[in-house]
Specification:
Layout (H helix, E strand, L loop, with lengths): L3 E10 L2 E11 L4 E5 L6 H9 L6 E6 L5 E4 L13 H5 L7 H10 L15 H13 L5 E5 L7 H18 L2 E5 L12 E5 L3 E5 L1 H6 L1 H7 L13 H7 L13
Parallel strand pairs: 3-7, 3-8, 5-6, 6-7
Antiparallel strand pairs: 1-2, 1-4, 8-9
Helix pairs in contact: 3-4
Length: about 250
């Protein structure tokens, strides 16, 4: 059974038809990346799949007992509110110190438990969000533009980490990305969205599709395959490894 499946999903938001007749499914272990221009309904689709927005038409089915780890596009924390990383990881459910430490270490953020959330760099903040998502023991990770605010090397390293977690845990990954230059060539499927599904398939198929090129221009033909993940090195013997994110506040 699919982890999540949408059939004939349409959604109105603010009086506007944002999504129309979307069919979608994702299985355990898959990485599915959603791309599309601003205002194309990418974040709205994620919220509908999560159950945060009711569809105007169609249905969304989630496997019974499905555990979801969610990394939002933005998370505003009041700069005047004292909030350590340790406390943040225990909201809304208290987490033992050892579990928090293991999750932070796995995402490359070991030792940050005592730091204030507002004092973290952009890359550190995103890794803490990912650690919090992992504490749910997710069957699926849902990430909404998780590299927003990171520089290109930081974004590439974050995508590499996501792919490693998929490989280690077997969880599915549903990712919205605006980083066409580093979209995962490891994706099993790429979905190009613009209010409806324009095209869908492997990164190579989508990057060659006329619908994709009409949205992003002919110069993006190879954009979906520029960044290769660690397991691609095994087959190609090539690729780049970059680390760290720039400070973003």
């Amino acid at each position: 059974m699919n982890l999540i499946r949408a059939r004939g999903l349409s959604l109105r938001y603010g009086g506007r038809l944002v999504l129309e007749d979307v069919d979608f499914s994702i299985d355990r272990g898959e990485i599915v990346t959603i791309v599309g221009p601003n205002g194309s309904g990418k974040s709205t689709l994620l919220r509908a799949l999560l159950g945060a927005l009711p569809p105007s038409r169609g249905v969304v089915e989630r496997r019974k007992g499905l555990r979801i780890g969610y990394v939002p596009q933005k998370l505003a924390i009041d700069a005047t509110l004292p909030m350590t990383v340790a406390r943040f990881l225990s909201v809304p459910f208290r987490q033992p110190p050892q579990r928090r430490a293991v999750a932070l270490a796995r995402v490359g953020a070991a030792g940050l438990e005592g730091r204030q959330m507002r004092a973290l760099s952009g890359g550190q903040f995103q890794r803490v969000l990912l650690a919090r998502a992992l504490l749910a023991g997710p069957d699926i990770l849902i990430l909404d533009e998780p590299t927003q605010g990171l520089d290109q090397p930081g974004a590439a390293e974050f995508y590499r980490l996501i792919e490693e977690l998929r490989r280690e845990t077997g969880c599915a990954v549903l990712l919205v990305s605006h980083d066409l230059h580093v979209v995962m060539s490891a994706s099993d499927r790429v979905i190009c969205l613009n209010g409806h599904i324009c095209c869908e398939g492997s990164p190579q198929v989508v990057s060659a599709a006329p619908e994709y090129r009409a949205l992003f221009g002919p110069g993006t033909g190879g954009a979906l395959a520029l960044y290769r993940h660690e397991h691609d090195h095994d087959h190609n013997g090539a690729g780049e490894h970059a680390g760290g994110g720039r400070d973003a506040g």
